[in-house]
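ok trying again, last paste got cut off:
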Amino acid sequence: MSIEYLGLSEINGPLVVLEGVKDAAYEEIVEFKIDGKETKLGRIVEIYEDKAVIQVFEGSEGMSLKNTHTRLTGKPMEIALSEDILGRTFDGIGKPIDGLGPIVSNEYRNINGLPLNPCTREYPRNYINTGISAIDGLTTLIRGQKLPIFSGNGLPHDQLAAQIVQQASLGSNSDEKFAIVFAAMGVKYDVAEFFRRTFEESGVSDHVAMFLNLANDPVVERLITPKVALTVAEYLAFEKGMHILVILTDITSFCEAMREVSSSKGEIPSRKGYPGYLYSELATLYERAGIVAGQQGSVTQIPILTMPNDDITHPIPDLTGYITEGQIVLDRALHGQAIYPPIGVLPSLSRLMKDGIGEGYTRADHQDIANQLFSSYAKVEDARSLASVIGEDELSAVDKKYLEFGTAFEKEFVGQGPFENRSIIETLDIGWKLLGLLPKEELDRIDTKILDKYYQPAE
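nice, full thing came through this time. structure:
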């Protein structure tokens, strides 16, 4: 039997304190009734002696110390799960906002998930095709991987996320089930409308479950949104055998919400004012990606975060880099040259790429051509630095070839249209075409047999 408490002892922003509590549990969901009319939800985030500190999801506006009835539900936050969740749009805590009614299901799951036994994990194999050459060719996304996108304010990460949702697939010859779970945290209304409209107009909405936490929604909701999205992804992957791609944007909003709530609780801050448990909270999210032995499905993550002041050493990208298997970095200089997507090739990498490409996955020459494109583009940077000192006319013939290659590489390989969906074969063929601009003897990262088969000098 649940006990109802009358009144609160303290209200501090999104946090309220309830005294005289018995048998309360951490992460337990609490229901508030205000003036006998309005209902709000919260969760217990701290317990000491007979006091419980509760986060109110909808914010504490309208609540007072005397007019609030509080009921402990005795269970953590759960979400109803069904395959019908695909094609639907929800708010940050999983309530439908598309006018189609609630999800009807007997299946409910704790949004905090269960720890995945490391011994049951399978090593990620096979790639996910995004249709974007700079990702598929050079930082290939592997099923079960977590591969973040490091962006900055004003860079087109929203457009890139929408393009990935529209184009992502398991490859043209796969008949396995694939779906996308998309979660946006702290986005402006026009950005949320952009995502919703883009998915509808491109016809991909039927295999996308979308969770939207807007900038004017309560801060506490932001902490719940990625957990709700990942719970849906785990259900579809490990119960329904689907391969799920989870896109989380913007992780920086999630971390700033955590900092705000931590400050309200009076906790001692760590780097840049973030709580000391920032690393473990991020790891709790990111480590929910993977493949489980004996299960058909997989959960792959693309978290997107905006680096404050483009600082890659900021705590959020810094800690993210420790946990994830690589990163895709957006480059402001390329964006300034009107190159889309402005993916900085040299600081980007995918640590699992080597195990999901090549013969039987993409094409036998994939690893070699990726290595050569990285190497050649690195030499482009050296040639540009030299040209800025002595002038382009004084460069050697080979250095001039590298400058020509660099410009063509940025425009034709990295750059592509926002609706241009390239197959992996098209991407590799463009790579070979660009390498044809360089003398054959400069291509020292490619096996001789592969080089003889594919190399064609530019006319």
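cool. The chain is about 30% helix and 25% strand. The chain has a mean pLDDT of 92.
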